[in-house]
Structure formats: structure tokens, C-alpha cells
Model the fold of this input.
Amino acid sequence: PLEEVRQAAVIPSILASIYQIMNGLVFIGEGVMVGCGNFFQLSLSTVIATIAALVSLNTLPKMFGLTGVWLSFGVFNSFRLAGVWLHQTKNGPLSEKALAQ
Done:
């Protein structure tokens, strides 16, 4: 491979490795949401995450190139993780409200 290609892939490959940890948490959390039947909250958080990803895809690649695309993927999954966190802490089976019942 060309040296320029290898250099351009360094940071995106590091980001992809880091995102695997986040993705694992997201997939587990979204599976819990499906199991609990909270489809509306899951779809709402996915729509919000998609909007955030589209906004970041319009801005970050212009500033950071290929790395900006991977950063946008991180934005998408960060918003999905936030949706999972809200579900777990506010109205999921492990929320204080559910545990108090």
C-alpha cells in the first residue's frame, strides 16, 4: 500500500477499535430495549442519533477528512448509547422507578 494511504488510515483504525467497546454496550442495551418492548423509545433515540450523524457528516469530514467520517460514526453511536443510558436509568427494568415497585 501507498505510504499516504497507511498514514490516512492510522487514526480511523484507532477510532474504530475504540468504538467497538461503545458498540458492544449499545447492542446489549438496545437488545434490552427490544426485550422490554420499548420500541418507541428505541426508534426515537435512533432517529435523534441519525440526525446527529447527518449533521456531523456535513461538518466533520470537511474539517478532518476521512477521520471526520469516523468521528461522525462515533457521534452516531454516542447518541445511541445516550438513548440506552436514558432507558436504563429512567424507565427500564433497572431504573429506580422500576426497582421501587
